[in-house]
């Protein structure tokens, strides 16, 4: 009887997790929906915009919420933690008429639970200020507000956009020319500033939205620059792994969401103390494999900021490193391996 009960509970919880998106509640523009989060649970909604435009989707209440928006194929479009009032989630997303979108709400921290409301409303198209390369622009952010900027590239390059100042904790979102969200950044720049790097082709337009991570306000600066484009190393599979040299910092460029970059190295002495870490402003994941593809170690945030670090004692042989980014993002970092 005990085994049957456990199997039944496992089946209920397992399939309820799989079917949660399919059983999403309907959310209509202008009509808030009240719900209650249980500890460790998530609630899904679906929304079908009657017209194309910018929509503001937000939660209200005292529950610390985290929100994600997906297209009909469940590709993540944008996410947010504390973009709303207090601990509420709030985001602006460009939606197309007639398409179905999915919204997932869960607790932002372990143990978060309680009642909340969620609503979706159209907002007017934002006023967008054009950035010119190398010329800093000054902005003034009001409490709870945001400012939009655009950049158009003239050549194939790495586009770098960053905020400056120390009046508030800046958060920046990057969008492509169709207002599809690319990635966001909190503290990738100096102090509490945001910095985003993107691979760009000539003639591409990008949009950037600047807000405060913690509802702060005040003046800030923003500037766009370009750096030379680095050709792809073609090491997205283990068979194309690039050989690492100990003590040499290697540039890593993730150009597609879910993409991996692979590296290899040789150990020639028994009981070698090996360490590898990433550096930069990206949230990285590191995996260490032996020559047969067996996973030996993995890490997320053991290094500074959101960087990954693996330390292991290894015997002679060939080993492989896989690096990828969290949250389906793209961008650049570096990787450094050494022997102690």
Automatic annotation (TrEMBL):
Residues 1-21 form the signal peptide. Gene3D superfamilies: 2.60.120.380. It comes from the Bacteria. The keyword Cell membrane does not apply. InterPro entries: Peptidase_C_arc/bac. Keywords: Signal. Coiled coil: none annotated. Pfam families: PPC. Residues 260-323 form the Peptidase C-terminal archaeal/bacterial domain. NCBIfam families: FDP_fam. This is Peptidase M4. It comes from uncultured bacterium contig00042. The lineage of its organism: Bacteria, environmental samples.
